[in-house]
Amino acid sequence: MKDLVSIITPVYNAEKFIEETITSVQNQTYQNWEHILVDDCSSDSSFKLIQALAEQDHRIKPVQLQQNGGPAVARNTAINMAEGRYLAFLDADDIWFDFHLKDSLELLKSQNHKFVFASYKRSDEDLNYIYSDFTVPERVSYTDILKSNSISCLTAVIDTKSLEKMEMPLIRKRQDMGLWLKYLKKIDYAYGINKTHAIYRIRENSLSRDKKSLIKYQWEFYRKVENLSFLYSLYFLLCWMYFGYKKYKK
Fold first, then answer.
1. Signed CA dihedral, 42, 209, 186, 195: sign only
2. Of residues 117, 115, 110, 102, the one with CA closest to residue 151
3. What is the pLDDT of residues 62-121, one digit of tens each?
4. Residue 227, exposed/middle/buried by CB under 10 A (0-12, 13-18, 19+)?
5. 210: exposed, middle or buried (C-beta count within 10 Å: 0-12, 13-18, 19+)?
6. Which fold has domain 5-206?
7. Which of 20, 193, 218, 234 could be disulfide-bonded to 118 (CB atoms 3.0-4.6 Å)?
8. What sections of the chain are H helices per DSSP?
9. Phi/psi zone of residue 65: left (φ > 0), alpha (ψ -120 to 50 degrees), beta?
10. Which residues, including other chains, have CB under 8 Å from residue 173's CB and lie 6 or more apart?
11. How much is the mean pLDDT over the chain?
12. Is the predicted pLDDT of residue 1 greater than 50, yes or no?
């Protein structure tokens, strides 16, 4: 029997995009998956849409939180529910190409890797490509991710049989980076796939695009989550600002 993949998706007011996201999972050529979607108290019809789709496909598993907790709480809820050997991450407005799971698992197994991630396209809300493709490095270490987080919550796939399940830190932003760093303290590298596997949809109101407001959170992440010294934190913050500018330069 093929190994089960548990797909982790936090949902908050994503009614405009969620069906397309779920369809991209259903279209995967690798079909042994469960899709755990945790609704974080959406005020729109996101959860009803997910429930309707779940009635037609038992692999879709909707969960609704009783109070709003943020994306880290939603993702951790799904991680704790996950029954698969592999964890894959997909946000509620992004899209996978149909070969994403198959190619990711083939690389994990053929090279005995424990953590892989892939390149992706970048679009606006209407799927018009507004930046060049984000091409990931061949491999990244713990230090590399401190400088620039090239692993998205869109293409990461982790073998939990080798690495076990771990939770994201309970912080408002950068929680995905926090999880990648936890794993990279256990292994030397996560390995990148040059081929574009997905579409990252950049929404108009996306907080992650406001780099000025993120500087504060990034600094606190280095100091309070990773417990880095003042000088190391300053060094990595300058690196992050430089690479962040390059990442979103058209």
1. positive
2. 117
3. 999 999 999 999 999 999 999 999 999 999 999 999 999 999 999 999 999 999 999 999
4. exposed
5. exposed
6. Spore Coat Polysaccharide Biosynthesis Protein SpsA; Chain A (3.90.550)
7. 193
8. 18-26, 46-56, 71-81, 100-110, 142-147, 160-163, 175-184, 211-220, 230-247
9. beta
10. 207, 208, 214, 217, 221
11. 93
12. no
- The HSE-up count of residue 162 (CA atoms within 13 Å, CB side) is 16
pLDDT in tens, 156-189: 999 999 999 999 998 888 899 999 999 999 999 9
- Take residue 31 and report the two structure tokens written for it: 């079909």
Instruction: Give the tens place of pLDDT for each residue, 195-229.
Output: 999 999 997 765 445 566 788 889 999 999 999 99
Can you tell me the distance from the alpha carbon of 201 to that of 94, in angstroms, rounded to the nearest whole number? 6
> CA dihedral defined by 32, 26, 34, 19, rounded to 10 degrees?
180
Residue 136, token pair as written in the block: 């990931």
Q: What is the residue whose two structure tokens read 């939603």?
A: 74
Tell me the mean pLDDT in the region 48-58. Answer: 97
pTM of the model: 0.93
Domain ranges of the chain: 5-206
Going by C-alpha positions, the residue among 118, 144, 145, 141 that lies closest to residue 200 is 118
| Helices 46-56, 18-26: inter-axial angle, 10-degree rounding | 20
Cβ atoms of 197 and 89 within 8 Å: the answer is no
CB atoms within 10 A of CB 3: 15
High-pLDDT (> 70) share of the chain, %: 95
